[in-house]
Design brief:
alpha+beta, six-stranded antiparallel β-barrel, three-stranded antiparallel sheet
């Protein structure tokens, strides 16, 4: 589709302050959320073409609100990265402060589903999941992420989680905190820990309902309950 940026060449800045100019080659809208629209984008940087995601914050009504929301997400990325949380390696703000360029969760062998839309694995070209590779490690690690965030006073919203999935069985699965619009710092560590565990549990149940074959639901959800209870015990 035709580029909707005012100019094709645009600079994006890292959280460290380093700027890189990229040439927007193409962009395809893939999702729309409360804060903006998501595009699967091909850019040219340093003479090489690469695939990224660009999130454009909404400017139709109040342009200053779009800039505020973009800056807020960018600040949250720095906060999450400094806390050692799992975030995308690339997360940059545009020079007009209305867009974020970030790593894509898609590749030739991998797809990405999130908790902030209704798209499931079937719509992305693979069948519902019937088998996982190292499921216990995946579920225990995601609850451990909630505890790590708690220690830094960071509240994890349900919309933040993206799941990276191999296209073939047994399914390799990982997660990343991809949508940082609703990341928050909280004053009460104990309340934050409790809320993080509840939100992660809800995220995993939602993920199961959308993406896992019904024949595997019971096994998956039993493990979710086990690791949820183990995590809760660690901060009580």
């Amino acid at each position: 589709m035709e580029n909707s940026f005012e100019k094709q060449n645009i600079s994006f800045k890292k959280h460290t302050g380093i700027e890189t100019k990229v040439n927007i080659i193409s962009e395809t809208p893939i999702n729309r959320g409360s804060f903006g629209e998501i595009f699967d984008t091909v850019v040219e940087v340093g003479g090489h073409r690469k695939r990224f995601i660009i999130k454009k914050y909404r400017t139709q009504i109040f342009e200053k609100i779009a800039e505020k929301d973009t800056k807020h997400a960018f600040k949250n990325y720095s906060l999450a990265k400094e806390a050692g949380l799992k975030v995308f390696p690339t997360f940059r703000i545009s020079e007009d402060q209305k867009s974020i360029l970030m790593t894509t969760g898609f590749s030739d062998n991998q797809i990405c589903v999130s908790t902030n839309n209704k798209i499931n694995v079937v719509e992305l070209g693979r069948p519902l999941i019937e088998e996982f590779e190292d499921l216990d490690k995946f579920i225990s690690t995601i609850f451990a992420e909630g505890l790590k965030a708690m220690k830094k006073g960071i509240s994890l919203h349900q919309d933040m989680f993206f799941f990276l999935l191999s296209k073939n069985e047994p399914t390799k699965v990982d997660f990343i905190l991809g949508d940082l619009d609703n990341l928050k710092q909280a004053e009460s560590i104990k309340v934050t820990g409790w809320q993080n565990m509840i939100n992660i549990r809800k995220v995993l149940i939602f993920f199961c309902d959308k993406n896992i074959d019904p024949s595997f639901h019971e096994i998956f959800l039993d493990k979710v309950e086990y690791y949820y209870n183990q995590a809760v015990k660690k901060y009580e």
